[in-house]
Amino acid sequence: MNGILDEVxxxxxxxxxxxxxxxxxxxxVCVLGWLFVAQIPSRYESRARVLVDxxxxxxxxxNGAPQAAQQTVDQVRQTLIxxxxxxxxxxxxxxxxxxxxxxxxxxxxxxxxxxIKIDSQQDNLFQIxxxxxxxxxxxxxxxxxxxxxxxxNLAGDRSATSQSxxxxxxxxxxxxxxxxxxxxxxxxxxxxxLGGLPGTGSxxxxxxxxxxxxxxxxxDLAAAQSGLAAVQGQMASTAQTxxxxxxxxxxxxxxxxxxxxxxxxxxxxxxxxxxxPDVVALKSQLGAATAAARAEPAGTAGGATANPLYLxxxxxxxxxxxxxxxxxxxxxxxxGDLDQLNAKLAGDPEVxxxxxxxxxxxxxxxxxYNQLLRQREQIAxxxxxxxxxxxxxFSLIDPPTLASKPVAPNRMLLLSGVFVxxxxxxxxxxFALAKLRGTFTTVGALERATGMPVIGAIGEVVxxxxxxxxxxxxxxxxxxxxxxxxxxxxxxxVEVLQRGMAA
Length: 503
Description:
Radius of gyration: 56 Å
Helix content: over 70%
Strand content: 5-15%
Low-confidence stretches: 56-69
Oligomer: single chain
Mean pLDDT: 75
Strand order of the largest sheet: 2-3-1-6
Number of helices: 16
């Protein structure tokens, strides 16, 4: 520990004995460093936040596919700092006083593009940051950028919408003429070749439709035949007559009453309610049949009457038979249509191929026309919305700010750094000079360096005149050191004053 303290004392003594060298080096480094810091131009920032609604107020299907966030940022950045816009900024601000020809304008535009930064904060909120040599110029450039963007954006939207509508109108008129020609060609072909054939569309389409109908009719016919067979089976196991009440045989009126009662019982067995039209009709007939049966004289005893259930099954079987007959007629008709169409297709295949081509061309033209019509309506609606909602689509959230202090360079930090570096350089220079000159300040240092014992040491004797001279030089040294500190403080004060004047 004592050795370390001795080394520190030796180093301090070496520096102190060469303090004038340290002071001179410190002054030289500080002056040169402060001059360099003074030459660095100040940079001021102006910030503004704007809301740019890139999607407008229309639904997503009228605006096309949504853009990615990075694509939106790039679009706004390219629009704002395009070369044309930056030229307008140069000529519309105080930068115009620094240019004399087009080359100067190009140079200013190139440097201005590096001084403008656009960041996306959230959704459609953007921050514009402009860095210039003066706070007023930075604010003017930012405001000019915003004004130019609003003007060119709105005018560009309207111009693009008008051009798009004009182009689509021209294409629609052309497609409409082509579609009319295709419709006339299609109608002429129908009249010449397919006028007597059943169905619509091409021959292949008509055959497909007929086959589908045939399959449906076959299914319905099979179900109807199955139902008829079931009813006939029930009829075979059901008696046609039953014994009458009291062993008497009823007349025709009573037979009709029994038949109607059987039909009514069968309808209720099927689940029909009293409001069903068939039940209502049967009840009406039942009332008339009941009155007729009462007026009819009674028959002889021991007779039989018709079975109501058998009569009901007989009526149901008649309905099933009629349904089966109708389905068979429909199947025969469809089979005839299929035979006619197959004969046409086999006898004249070129006509079918020509019709298929005509139908495909017509469908393609129809789809193109409908698509163009939808696009025109979307663009017209979007253009109307843009015209009526311009103030909503672009909003200035925070106006351009006027900087009160420069953002770069941090002169106070740089001045302090130069001051510390100057002091360090002075101390280092004095210590290095002491090491270069082989002198020994203590007896111990001499013994360690030579390896031989030192017999004695003679102290320095200072006269009064020498002491007064040394005191005077010490005052000069302290004055020079204090002057360096005062210069540092003054420079900091000047920096603070300049910031206040800029604000």
